[in-house]
Amino acid sequence: MFMRRQTLFTPRRETARGHVRRLGLTRLSLMLLTTALAPLIDGMGAGAKAARETDLATEAPFAATATEENLQLVVLEVADCVYCSLFRRYIVPAYATSPKAHSLPMKFIDMNDKAYDELGLDGPVDTVPTTVLLHNNREIGRIPGYLGPENFFHAVNHLMTRVN
């Protein structure tokens, strides 16, 4: 019995003679492609780790003032949010190992809780997750959405410059 190979992606292209030729991506070629790209994807996290270590290490003057001035880093999220789970998976562990985590702890608040109404933000939150830097329960700035670890640490450092 002759078995036809299964293709996942079959765009059509006409040849010079008018015949239709299908360019198929078989499961085998898809597996080979993903195994070839896997080391590249795994290596992307190294840049975020290096940025976290260099950027947060240079922010040492803020470490002493963070607890004295009542700074809070609050993450606003909702249940069943895909980007909130990505935030918890990739950014929270990276932030927990950073030097800034000891002086500026990260707190999570569900936007459907009463604690959200008591925050006293400058404006409504329309994107989740949103990270808000509070100084004496007053909003200094916010980071809307999921940016990835490297950009998140740059944004936190930028918000910290507004404190003084």
Tell me what you see in this structure:
With 164 residues, this protein is α+β, with helices and mostly antiparallel strands. The chain has 2 domains: 7-42, no CATH class; 44-160, Glutaredoxin. Helices cover 45% and strands 22% of the residues. The protein is built from 7 helices and 8 strands. It has helices at 27-42, 44-57, 60-68, 82-96, 100-103, 114-117, 149-160, and strands spanning 7-9, 12-14, 20-22, 25-26, 71-77, 106-110, 130-135, 138-144. A 4-stranded mixed sheet has the order 6-5-7-8. β2 (12-14) and β3 (20-22) form a beta hairpin. α2 (44-57) packs parallel to α7. The longest helix has 16 residues, at 27-42. The protein starts with 6 loop residues before the first strand and ends with a helix. The model is unreliable at 40-68 (pLDDT under 50).
Could you list some keywords that capture this structure?
single chain, 164 residues, alpha+beta, Glutaredoxin, 2 domains, four-stranded mixed sheet, 7 helices, 8 strands, globular
- Which strand-content bin applies to the residues? 15-25%
What is the CATH H-level superfamily of the largest domain? Glutaredoxin
Q: Specify the overall morphology.
A: globular
**Largest sheet report:** 4 strands, mixed
Task: Briefly say what this structure is.
The protein has 164 residues and is of the alpha+beta class.
Task: Summarize the helices and strands and which ones pair or pack.
Blueprint: E1 7-9, E2 12-14, E3 20-22, E4 25-26, H1 27-42, H2 44-57, H3 60-68, E5 71-77, H4 82-96, H5 100-103, E6 106-110, H6 114-117, E7 130-135, E8 138-144, H7 149-160
Parallel strand pairs: 5-6
Antiparallel strand pairs: 1-4, 2-3, 5-7, 7-8
